[in-house]
Amino acid sequence: EVQLVESGGGLVQPGGSLRLSCAASGITLTTYTMNWVRQAPGKGLEWVSAISGGGGNTYYADSVKGRFTISRDNSKNTLYLQLNSLRAEDTAVYYCAKDYSNACFDYWGQGTLVTVSS
Amino acid sequence: DIQMTQSPSTLSASVGDRVTITCRASQTISTWLAWYQQKPGKAPKLLMYKASTLESGVPSRFSGSGSGTEFTLTISSLQPDDFATYYCQQYKSYALTFGGGTKVEIK
């Protein structure tokens, strides 16, 4: 059974940093493109970033480019998202999601809440 | 980026109703379109991919159609478990983008 478990969310001040983790079981992350998708409170879904199975290709939404970095630790089978220079508009639940059929998402984690506020 | 526009944003319907949600892409995406269902406090659930392919385990009352820029999700007979918010998503190219969502409410 595929399980994705996010952690690392919390309250951070504007301009601060946070690292989110997504521990995977039931799959090997190097086999799939993995993604981060976020949802601001009461709002819709926004794709944030993706990393290819081989790790050689990364993709970012314009809203986070230059501030967020996606990465993976193959030995831990864990996906990461480093969030720097955080803004109030980055406040959201962050989900990791497994790629399916060329970039839609069939498995999602439960999400981790990031709140950016002073 | 490809913009995805869903309509309506809210839909009030009764159990047993036929419901149709529309999604429009700002440029052609062939059939690289997925539909998701999300309930409050939960992660989205994949319903449909390649515009009209039903994900395993999803009831057959859900169907999808369209290609190019116009797509629809239809629920043939709305059930109590179907009251939720639905999102379309294009995966023709990065940046991947979602529609704004359609909330299906009880009438």
Question: What this model shows, in words?
Answer:
The complex is a heterodimer of chains A (118) and B (107). With 118 residues, chain A is mainly β. In chain A, 0% of the residues lie in helices and 53% in strands. Chain A is built from no helices and 11 strands. Chain A has strands at 3-7, 10-12, 18-25, 34-39, 45-51, 58-60, 68-73, 78-83, 92-100, 104-108, 112-116. In chain A, strands 2, 4, 5, 6, 9, 10 and 11 form a 7-stranded mixed sheet that branches. In chain A, a hairpin with a 6-residue loop joins strand 5 (45-51) and strand 6 (58-60). The termini of chain A are far apart. In chain B, a hairpin with a 3-residue loop joins strand 5 (45-49) and strand 6 (53-54). Chain B is globular. Chain B has strands at 4-7, 10-13, 19-25, 33-38, 45-49, 53-54, 62-67, 70-75, 85-90, 97-98, 102-106. Chain B has 107 residues and is an all-beta fold. The N and C termini of chain B lie far apart (36 Å). Chain B contains no helices and 11 strands. The chains are: A mainly beta (118), B mainly beta (107). At the A-B interface, strand 5 and strand 10 of A face strand 4, strand 5 and strand 10 of B.
The residue ranges of chain B in which pLDDT falls below 50 over 5 or more consecutive positions are none
Arithmetic mean of pLDDT of chain B: 97
Task: Give the tally of β-strands of chain B.
Answer: 11
Our estimate of the beta-strand percent of chain A is over 45%
**What is the chain-wise order of helices and strands of chain B?**
EEEEEEEEEEE
Helix content of chain A: under 10%
**How many H/I helical runs of chain A?**
0
Give the termini distance of chain A in whole angstroms. 40 Å
Salient structural properties:
heterodimer, A: 118 residues, mainly beta, 4-stranded antiparallel sheet, 11 strands, 53% strand, B: 107 residues, 7-stranded mixed sheet, 0% helix, globular
Sequence-ordered SSE layout with sheet pairings:
The complex is a heterodimer of chains A (118) and B (107).
Chain A: E1 3-7, E2 10-12, E3 18-25, E4 34-39, E5 45-51, E6 58-60, E7 68-73, E8 78-83, E9 92-100, E10 104-108, E11 112-116
Parallel strand pairs in A: 2-11
Antiparallel strand pairs in A: 1-3, 3-8, 4-5, 4-9, 5-6, 7-8, 9-10, 9-11
Chain B: E1 4-7, E2 10-13, E3 19-25, E4 33-38, E5 45-49, E6 53-54, E7 62-67, E8 70-75, E9 85-90, E10 97-98, E11 102-106
Parallel strand pairs in B: 2-11
Antiparallel strand pairs in B: 1-3, 3-8, 4-5, 4-9, 5-6, 7-8, 9-10, 9-11
